Amino acid sequence: MNEDFIKQKIQKWIVLISLLILGGKFIAFYITNSVGILTDAMESIVNIVAGIISLFSLRWAAKPKDKEHPFGHGKIELISASIEGILIALAGGLIIYEGIQRLFSPASIGKLDIGIIVVAAAGLINYFMGWFSIKAGKKYNSIALIAGGKHLQSDTYSTIGLVIGLLLLYYTGIEWIDSALALIFGSIIILSGISILKKTVAGLLDKADDKTLNDMAESINKHRQPDWIDIHNTKIIKYGSYLYIDCDLTLPFYYNLTEGHQACENLRKTLTTNFSPQIQISIHSDPCRMAHCKHCEIADCHFRKSPFSEQEKITLSNMTQNDEEKNEN
Questions:
Q1: How far apart are CA 120 and CA 30, in angstroms?
Q2: Is 203 helix (H, G, I), strand (E, B) or coil?
Q3: What is the location of CATH 1.20.1510.10 in the chain?
Q4: Which of 119, 182, 235, 236 has a CA positioned 20 to 30 A from the CA of residue 106?
Q5: Are 118 and 24 in contact (CB under 8 A)?
Q6: What is the pTM of this model?
């Protein structure tokens, strides 16, 4: 089954279940009149809107590359996650506003036992939905599914605190606890939205991903060939689940065009097989210099100026150096 179809199917189920949870929470709010439960219902609205946006982004991101979008449509996942972050922060602000209103104008609250059961059950379902979404997101390399899953799980953590607060309200009858819960969890929701925005802005600005670069370096070191003398000037840009890699590969200076092309092709195949099948890589070949001799493993090189000492391991530091930095070393 196509991976993009699977991701969309998962997101459809998340949206459907979120709609059912929303209905349950609003019934609980109607019965109890608790602003604390209203905060949970507001979160569910955000979940659904974010889920629909995420579903749209997954469909759009699955579109193939074209002349107008040579790198594909993967960035739409980051845009959808940004919208989700903004919606989460706005929901948190509305919850705080309602909490302050209730603090100065308390309302009667009743049947909290039913409300607590509904909220607790919804929180449990949200947690497992989030766990499944994150697992699927990592498996299929989907930023949208991972962001949505983390959002659902963060809802669960706030729900645990909400249930504890509602139990205190239930057993003590102190009405300001309800408003206090709204203020606390409204603030948590705002922070959650800001956190998502920070990550998506970093992605939109193509911030270097050290983990991905380290994984790439590890893959190269495991399957390295003798004529891959050095790799540097490496850049990785993420477009949804696809990686676009640009790097410089140092090869023996006496290689002809055919030999150089074959070495670059070997590197591409190695990364596609052992690092990620969803990559597009552009490799620029550089000729070796005298300083490379001590790190070069080619035994039958007739141009060697110094004996082989040890192979230079590919690391995050040296694989991201540009030509000027490399020549200084």
A1: 17
A2: helix
A3: 3-204
A4: 119
A5: yes
A6: 0.62
| φ, ψ for residue 293, nearest 5 deg | -55, -40
Positive or negative, the CA dihedral 221, 227, 233, 236 is negative
Is the CB of residue 274 less than 8 Å from the CB of residue 222?
A: yes
C-alpha to C-alpha distance for 311 and 294, rounded to whole angstroms = 8
Q: Which of 240, 251, 231 is nearest to 276 (CA)?
A: 240
Burial status of residue 182 (CB atoms within 10 A of its CB: 0-12, 13-18, 19 or more): buried
Tell how far CA 241 is from the center of its chain. Answer: 10
Given CATH 1.20.1510.10, say whether it is the number of domain 3-204: yes
Contact 26, 155 (CB under 8 A): no
The C-alpha R_g of the chain, in whole angstroms, comes to 27
Query: Distance between CA atoms of 289 and 253, rounded to whole angstroms?
Result: 8
- 227: which DSSP letter? T
For residue 121 the two structure tokens come to 């059950």
Strand partners for 230: 250
In eight-state DSSP terms, residue 242 is E
Structure tokens at 108: 């009667």
Architecture label for domain 210-328: 2-Layer Sandwich (3.30)
Going by C-alpha positions, the residue among 77, 85, 316 that lies closest to residue 198 is 85
Nearest-angstrom CA–CA distance, 323 and 327: 6
Comparing CA positions, the residue from 219, 172, 179 lying closest to residue 319 is 219
pLDDT by position in tens, the chain (length 329): 567 778 778 878 888 888 888 888 888 888 888 877 887 787 777 777 777 777 777 777 777 777 777 677 777 777 877 887 888 788 788 878 878 887 787 767 778 888 889 889 988 998 898 899 888 888 887 777 887 788 778 778 778 877 888 888 888 888 788 788 878 878 887 887 888 888 888 777 777 778 888 999 999 999 999 999 999 999 988 876 678 899 999 999 999 999 999 999 999 999 998 888 778 899 999 999 888 898 888 888 888 888 888 888 998 888 888 766 666 65
